[in-house]
């Protein structure tokens, strides 16, 4: 990372715009940033940090979402802005940030707050121009963090190091060093290996426990199926011998179930035999009862038939007379038909003669027919006159149609003239709507581009508020987990100490006479130590150690979760800024409402354009219709004159034809009605004469048929005749009586029925109860046999499943043992890992060793060959090892802690370490090159000789194309360092004065 240019406006103590050309300052490799106390030296570094991360180090950020960064010396109309141009990862970028700004309102009184703004641009060497990349706080923050590979805190620790804080890394604990080195050297893949192995261990352990739990579940199901015939082993999942105990108990239960099945089969066979005998007895009792009741019912039916014998004989006589009358029925029907036809014909003749004139009222059929022929001849003569009359009617209607067309064309011309007169107004109104919709569409497109950034910032603000609560909850959980881990560790150490006090008794328990003692080698043991009350054995100590390790893992897990929540909160805050969520939501709602309104207005564009096109088409149509109406009016004049001449000729012809009638049609209707009446009267007269003759013939045939059938008169034959319904009913009664009589005689003649009637009454209820008892006993026996069979089948099935589970569990347990050993080794909790070093710590230890070696090359020069930094992988206390850092004093030859260095020694030792870290990061493949470093204060603690040596080391950085900025107010440095950036303070704010190496 190399800085090129920094522009500051209204930031911190700088009221006006100030610029820093880092390229000019870095040309000498070493430059000085100096000025009086409070002038704003640190504010220059704050501006660099704010441009990259959107916030400044420590408490200087303040509240109010960065509004405190604004200079109190700035004019009211000038907005705070920081612009930084830098090169990182071979990309030249420009970052511009403007914090929130409280400014006077453009209208009215009071102030309003403008939101924070951020721009990111990249220089394109091909086109020699800057191109915009993003304006999103979140996207820019993620891009800068990804390119630099460090968070804001890590950047300040490695690059800016504010207010003499070089010693933070030097004095940091192993965990803090591990986090920073892990980000710089990207060792996440090794941490992922640790997490993967831990997850595999938990997974395989859960699968083993699940297998044991499934085996016990099968055993419980077998116990439920076998009942008291099976006893379960008192073992838990994971206990040794569980599988063998379960399989042995299952074998015993299967043998017992098969014995019970054999006993149930014998009981079922006996119950089936008893039930069959009871069913036979019940069938016999029911048959005797049926026959006895059948005989009694037959005797009762015979008595009822004897009572109805007289009615039966009368019905037989009535049926015989009806059969004789059936021979006369055709003659009766013929006479009835002839009489009906004659009466109808006579009534029709009388009705047809009523409208006739008196001269024809008594005329015969021949006279009436002749009169009808004369009327038809007259009607034929009026047909031509009728056609003329119809033509006259058509002419009148045609003239009326011409008049209607004339009126319609007049209306069309008037309507078209009125509409065309308002055309300019109509077109202007519609065109105005089209223009308004087009403007709204353009505004909607502009608002659409603003919606997504506003929504993303609102989502980030809501996420920021939620994560703030989550951070507090995670902090409380981490504190509680840490307290639990401390308590568990104290308990484990107490037990370990108690065990050490009683270790002699524990060793004495394994002594055997004649066998040498493992401690002193003696073969005689006259007074072995005895265990005191409350003795702590190895198992108790290991359980306490396991509890402590579990508590420590929970503590580490809660701290990791706390770190993850804090990082997420920082990312959300970087994207959302410090604006309240309610205000962001209100701004988003205002934008959405305006967008909805403009979209609604713009949606009418197509409709308005279509309406304009329809109006133009309607104008053309109305103009054409007006012209066509004028042409049609001119053509109708000749047609009206032709129709008037033809109408006069037809009216003269019809006056002669209709006579005294109103019209020819009326006259023709009179003649037509008269001809129809005469024709109908002639027809009805002939029909009446014919029906009278047929009635006379039918009376003669009826009298002859009644005499031959044995009746004195036709009336007697008609009375004896039965209709179909009466004949069927009478025949049904005769047939029913005959069938009942035959059935009764047949039942009374049955030998077995008569024999059953002579015996004692049957008792089917008693037989039914006996059969029911036998059936119940059979069902009970069958249920017992089915239960025994189901028990055997269930035990066989569950035993087979349990056996398969036992076979499948062995390789799973092997896998769990192997994975657990690897996970413990990688996590540093295994006994095989003597230094308790995690895999990631092991990799980082190698990197730290490189950093210490690179730092020692400069530290030796700064300390005149006295001090050397060395990496230590020794364990600190009872903790883990891997990231220790010591200093070796060549004057004493002893290795001691870096905390024992004096203030000046601590400064140049930590400076050497930071420069060494920068060298290793730069040389590391994929690492971040740190080309610009800042050193803030600390030089005042050095004597002249040491200061010269430190400056020589810093000046040597130019060989690797690095530049170092020294922030100090030490006067001697102004003489030694020629490239300078001076901060001058005044009443109107501070200003910058830059002087290059020349």
Short description:
The chain is of the alpha+beta class. Helices cover 67% and strands 10% of the residues. The strands form four sheets. Strands 2-1-4-5-8-9 form a six-stranded antiparallel sheet.
Global mean pLDDT: 78
Range of strand content: 5-15%
* Helical residue percent band: 55-70%
Rg of Cα set = 62 Å
Gross morphology is flat
Question: Can you count the beta strands?
Answer: 16
Please state the structural category: alpha+beta
Largest sheet: number of strands, sense, barrel closure = 6 strands, antiparallel
How are the strands ordered across the major sheet? 2-1-4-5-8-9
Treating each run of at least 4 consecutive H or I residues as one helix, how many helices?
26
Unreliable residue runs: none
Query: Whole-Å distance between the termini?
Result: 25 Å
Structure keywords:
998 residues; alpha+beta; 5-stranded mixed β-sheet; 26 helices; 67% helix
């Amino acid at each position: 990372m190399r800085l090129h240019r920094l522009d500051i406006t209204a930031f911190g103590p700088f009221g006006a715009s100030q610029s820093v050309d880092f390229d000019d300052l870095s040309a000498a490799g070493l430059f000085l940033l100096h000025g009086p106390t409070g002038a704003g030296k640190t504010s220059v570094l704050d501006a660099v940090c704010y441009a990259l991360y959107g916030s400044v180090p420590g408490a200087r950020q303040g509240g109010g979402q960065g509004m405190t960064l604004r200079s109190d010396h700035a004019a009211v109309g000038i907005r705070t802005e920081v612009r930084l141009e830098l090169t990182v990862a071979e990309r030249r970028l420009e970052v511009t940030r403007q914090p929130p700004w409280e400014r006077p309102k453009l209208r009215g009184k009071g102030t309003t707050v403008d939101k924070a703004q951020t721009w990111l641009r990249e220089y394109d060497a091909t086109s020699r121009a800057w191109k915009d990349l993003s304006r999103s706080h979140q996207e820019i923050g993620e891009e800068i963090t990804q390119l630099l590979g460090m968070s804001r805190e890590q950047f300040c620790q490695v690059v800016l190091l504010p207010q003499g804080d070089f010693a933070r890394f030097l004095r940091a604990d192993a965990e803090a060093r591990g986090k920073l080195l892990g980000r710089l050297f990207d060792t996440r893949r090794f941490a992922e290996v640790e997490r993967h192995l831990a997850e595999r261990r938990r997974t395989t352990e859960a699968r083993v426990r699940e297998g044991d739990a499934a085996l016990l579940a099968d055993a419980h199901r077998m116990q439920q199926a076998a009942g008291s015939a099976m006893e379960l082993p008192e073992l838990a999942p994971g206990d040794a011998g569980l599988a063998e105990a379960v399989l042995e108990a299952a074998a015993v239960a299967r043998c017992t179930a098969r014995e019970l099945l054999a006993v149930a089969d014998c009981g079922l066979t006996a119950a089936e035999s008893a039930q069959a005998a009871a069913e036979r007895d019940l069938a016999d009792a029911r048959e005797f009862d049926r026959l006895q009741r059948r005989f009694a019912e037959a005797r009762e039916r015979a008595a009822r038939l004897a009572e109805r014998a007289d009615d039966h004989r009368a019905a037989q006589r009535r049926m015989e007379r009806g059969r004789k009358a059936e021979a006369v029925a055709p003659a009766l029907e013929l006479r009835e038909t002839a009489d009906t036809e004659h009466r109808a014909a006579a009534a029709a003749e009388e009705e047809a003669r009523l409208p006739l004139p008196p001269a024809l009222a008594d005329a015969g059929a021949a006279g009436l027919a002749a009169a009808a022929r004369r009327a038809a001849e007259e009607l034929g003569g009026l047909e031509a006159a009728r056609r003329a009359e119809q033509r006259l009617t058509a002419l009148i209607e045609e003239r009326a149609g011409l008049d209607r067309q004339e009126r319609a064309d007049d209306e069309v011309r008037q309507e078209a003239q009125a509409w065309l007169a308002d055309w300019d107004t109509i077109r202007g109104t519609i065109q105005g709507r089209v223009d308004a919709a087009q403007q709204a569409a353009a505004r909607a497109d502009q608002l659409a581009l603003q919606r997504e950034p506003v929504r993303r910032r609102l989502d980030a603000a809501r996420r920021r508020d939620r994560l703030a609560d989550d951070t507090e909850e995670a902090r409380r959980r981490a504190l509680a987990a840490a307290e639990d881990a401390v308590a568990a560790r104290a308990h484990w150490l107490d037990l370990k100490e108690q065990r050490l006090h009683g270790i002699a008794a524990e060793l004495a328990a394994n002594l055997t006479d004649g066998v040498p003692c493992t401690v002193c080698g003696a073969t005689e043991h006259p007074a072995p130590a005895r265990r005191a009350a409350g003795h702590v054995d190895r198992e108790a100590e290991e359980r306490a150690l396991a509890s402590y390790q579990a508590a420590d893992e929970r503590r580490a897990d809660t701290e990791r979760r706390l770190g993850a929540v804090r990082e997420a909160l920082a990312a959300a805050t970087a994207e959302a800024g410090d604006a309240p969520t309610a205000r962001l939501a209100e701004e988003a709602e205002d934008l959405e409402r305006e967008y909805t309104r403009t979209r609604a207005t713009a949606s009418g564009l197509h409709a308005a354009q279509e309406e304009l096109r329809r109006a133009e088409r309607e104008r053309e149509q109305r103009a054409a219709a007006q012209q066509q109406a004028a042409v049609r009016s001119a053509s109708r004049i000749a047609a009206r004159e032709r129709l008037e001449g033809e109408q006069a000729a037809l009216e003269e012809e019809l006056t002669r034809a209709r006579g005294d009638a109103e019209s020819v049609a009326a006259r023709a209707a009179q003649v037509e009605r008269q001809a129809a009446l005469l024709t109908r009267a002639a027809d009805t007269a002939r029909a009446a004469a014919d029906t009278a003759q047929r009635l006379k013939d039918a009376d003669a045939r009826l009298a002859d048929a009644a005499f031959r059938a044995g009746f004195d008169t036709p009336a007697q034959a008609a009375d004896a005749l039965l209709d179909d319904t009466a004949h069927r009913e009478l025949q049904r009664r005769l047939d029913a009586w005959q069938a009942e009589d035959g059935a009764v005689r047949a039942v009374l003649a049955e030998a077995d029925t008569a024999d059953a009637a002579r015996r004692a009454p049957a008792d089917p209820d008693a037989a039914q109860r006996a059969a029911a008892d036998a059936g119940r006993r059979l069902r009970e026996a069958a249920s017992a046999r089915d239960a025994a069979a189901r028990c055997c089948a269930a035990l066989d099935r569950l035993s087979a499943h349990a056996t398969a589970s036992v076979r499948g569990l062995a390789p799973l347990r092997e896998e769990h043992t192997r994975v657990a050993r690897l996970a413990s080794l990688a996590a540093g909790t295994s006994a095989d890992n003597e230094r308790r070093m995690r895999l990631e710590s092991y990799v980082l230890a190698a990197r730290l060793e490189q950093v210490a070696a690179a730092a020692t090359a400069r530290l030796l020069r700064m300390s005149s060959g006295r001090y050397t930094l060395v990496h230590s992988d020794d364990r600190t206390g009872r903790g883990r090892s891997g990231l220790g850092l010591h200093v070796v004093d060549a004057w004493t030859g002893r290795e001691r802690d870096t905390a024992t260095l004096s203030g000046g020694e601590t400064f140049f030792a930590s400076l050497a370490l930071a420069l060494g870290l920068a060298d290793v990061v730069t040389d590391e493949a994929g690492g971040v090159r740190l080309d610009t470093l800042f050193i803030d204060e600390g030089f005042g603690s050095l004597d002249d000789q040491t200061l010269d040596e430190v400056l020589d080391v810093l000046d040597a950085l130019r060989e690797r194309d690095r530049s170092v900025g020294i922030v100090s107010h030490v006067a001697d440095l102004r003489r030694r360092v020629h490239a300078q950036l001076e901060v001058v303070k005044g009443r109107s704010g501070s200003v910058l004065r830059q002087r290059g190496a020349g």
